[in-house]
Sequence to fold (598 residues):
Amino acid sequence: MNEFLVLVVEDDKPIRNLITTTLKMNDYRFITAVKGNEAIMLSASHKPDIIILDLGLPDIDGVEVIEHIRTWSDVPIIIVSARSEDRDKITALDKGADDYLTKPFSVDELLARLRVIQRRLMKSENISVTEFVNGRLRIDYVSGCVHLDDEELHLTPIEYRLLCLLAKNVGKVLTHKYIIQSLWGTPADNSEASLRVFMATLRKKLSDSSQALIQTHIGIGYRMMKL
Amino acid sequence: MSDKKKKKNAYISVLKDFGISLIILAAATIAGYLFKLGGLTDSNIIMLYIIAVLVISILTSKIYYCLGSSIVGVLVFNYLFTYPEFSFSAHDAGYPVTFLTMFITALIAGTLANKLKRNTLIAEQNAREKEEAALLAQNEQLRANMLRTISHDLRTPLTSISGNASTLISGGTALDETARQQIYTDIFSESMWLIEMVENLLYATRIEDGRMQLNISVEILDDIVQEAVRHTERTHPKRNIIVDMYDEIIPVMADANLIVQVIVNLMDNAVKYSDEDSDVTVSVHLENEYAVISVSDHGTGISDEEKEKVFDMFYTGGSRSSDSRRSLGLGLALCRSIITSHSGSVYVSDNIPNGTIVSFTLPIGEVDLNE
Fold:
């Protein structure tokens, strides 16, 4: 039995069935909610490890649910939305959601997202404040050095800050807006284009052309994967 | 702001019309004076003024100029050319009649000319409206065709999915394992097809009045290509996809989601029209101010006369594809309208020794970095 408890918040019955069947077959424990308020209550009373949250709920907006839950809990939240709701998706991520699934999604995709979060939860227990290690990548926060295997990488200050930002939020999708605000404070006209270029140069230095380490989410943002 | 501008424009047009009237009347007067010097009679000079009023009616926008210049013409004629000269009095008893006739003739000629001009304008406008209506009807026709094709194409997989599912519900246990497995596979692949289809439709609805609503910004080509490749690898896990990227970072001006969709469509075609064990290649190179993205396969290729037609909406390669339902024909037409609205171009060429290369161009973007 998987020790993770998943709260599934989805008002559409076939989709809810699909998600719960998948969870059941993969030995996750789960509880379900149909409405937003119910979800808030359940997450307070049952303390789930992961929440899968549909954005379009009958009573309150999914974004509101995130805002509520984030006032007391950092529980990872995966949002589920239709493609036409790109903007809502970004708002939800900015409000603290960790990841998203776009309808129609495959069962494998859902499981992959769950595994990403599980991996992060398990490893975050032995997190160190002075050093970050992820696969071949090692960041020494004290000296400001970055190593890929044994080779030291020469990053520009902005690339370094970008890498640290992603590392501190490993497993989480960061929106363009969030990254730009963290790097420059106030966004300028060329911020998005600059960010894309810095990300491309950083990725090159990390030899990550296949995007195994840093994923690009087109129109949304970036995420560092926990390897 | 626009009100002020309108007022200003109206003022300019009044000034212009007034100037035209003055110049033409002055020209008629000078010509009349020359006529008089040449010893020609009054009636010739009257004719000159009538012509002047006619020309004024044609060149100016309002009927007032015709009326005004008729009156001024009569007065000037009276003042300069009738005895006693340089006075508004006329000694000959016939002159008042002459003046009246001159005025009425000028006025009628002017009014007719003005009417003629207005009719021409109306005719022009009608023609324009007709043209617009025709274009609208054509778009409407296209949309109707699309809807008809689509609803037909949606019905088939939906019938298969619901039918298969109901078989499983009512008598699933009576079927043997292989038969059931076949049904599962069918349901899955039919719904996958529906998903792709709906995806394309979503993008197609962004075309309004034949133009795509774009959200263009500086994007990194690598990101776009990787995203498309990932998507294709998911939908066709058995196919070997080779990605041949340029070594530099290439910023392009693009609506990333739409271009991903274009590459996905092209790769989908490449996979569909080539053997299961052959490679599909995506490559990028630079040509002047453009990035060229090519998708090539080792299939049967496309004949020269078909190369242009493949971009037409609903063209499905007729004889070639036995399961034409699976190639809606919306794909390449959609790709072309997306690329065209990015000021790029798309073209088909032959892969050596066999197969097809579909390439498209995107303008390279410029970034001034925010360090």
